[in-house]
Amino acid sequence: MGGERVNMEKRLTIAIDGYSSCGKSTFAKAVAKELNYIFIDSGAMYRTVTLFCMREKFIGNAGLDIHGILKELNNINIDFIFNPDINEYETFLNSENVENEIRSMEVTAHVSRISQIPEVRTRMVELQRQIGIYKGIVMDGRDIGTVVFPDADIKIFMTASVDIRARRRHDELKGRGIIIDFEEIKRTIIARDIADENRDISPLRRADDAIILDNSRMTVGEQMVWIKQIIEKKRNDS
Ligand code: DC
């Protein structure tokens, strides 16, 4: 056994699900950094497929070209590559950095339709499981604790009040020079919640064994103190 490296700390799989605009990615990123784990934003994967479909004109006024999408599905390669200059992972579509483009309003407007295609979900879940095979991963999304990693070591379900989420989104957009009426943002958030919770496949729901994190009145620092206690307890129990 001489020379074999023994890792005393069990590598964990941490699944973070929850409503849109409640700070899932910010929190998940901070947790991954703290543990030196990989962070995967599963929403970015659905956004990347959407961008691909837009470029290939599979999304049009007449609806979706499902046949075209399914034919090309296996030619969509998604990678997350760490950029040391900004200390963050960035999303790549077939070797092209698309991190900014997938956050556009146009992609945001189409992504929920693309993420409802069963074959797209099956493919994304397959990729997500491949990425998570060695554990040491924090993944955020809508179905991570319920479908992707039902055996995750720690499952968090994030929520925050609609007003607070709308306020945060409003301030974030304002910071980017985009002024949108607060009530309109609120209506969009409510509509997205309803869509996420009521879609037929993999609707957003809390896994029975997920711990709820309502961060309405918590800073990211406070959320980190909270999760560190959960991680420590998990490690001591196992
Ligand atoms: O978290 P986000 O807004 O970037 O997600 C983009 C879209 O993808 C959103 O419509 C929900 C969907 N999504 C999903 O269906 N399953 C996931 N695991 C993650 C995101």
Give an account of the 3D structure.
The protein has helices at 24-35, 42-55, 66-72, 105-114, 118-131, 144-148, 162-175, 182-198, 220-237, and strands at 13-18, 38-41, 59-60, 63-64, 78-83, 88-93, 96-97, 137-141, 154-159, 211-214. It is an alpha/beta fold and 238 residues long. It has two domains: 10-24 and 143-228, P-loop containing nucleotide triphosphate hydrolases (Rossmann fold, 3-Layer(aba) Sandwich); 38-135, P-loop containing nucleotide triphosphate hydrolases (Rossmann fold), CATH 3.40.50. The strands form three sheets. A five-stranded parallel sheet has the order 2-8-1-9-10. A three-stranded antiparallel sheet has the order 5-6-7, with helices on one face. A hairpin with a 4-residue loop joins strand 5 and strand 6. Helix 2 crosses helix 4. The protein is globular, with a radius of gyration of 18 Å. The chain starts with 12 loop residues before the first strand and ends with a helix. 2'-deoxycytidine-5'-monophosphate binds at residues 20, 42-43, 46-47, 111-112, 115, 141-143.
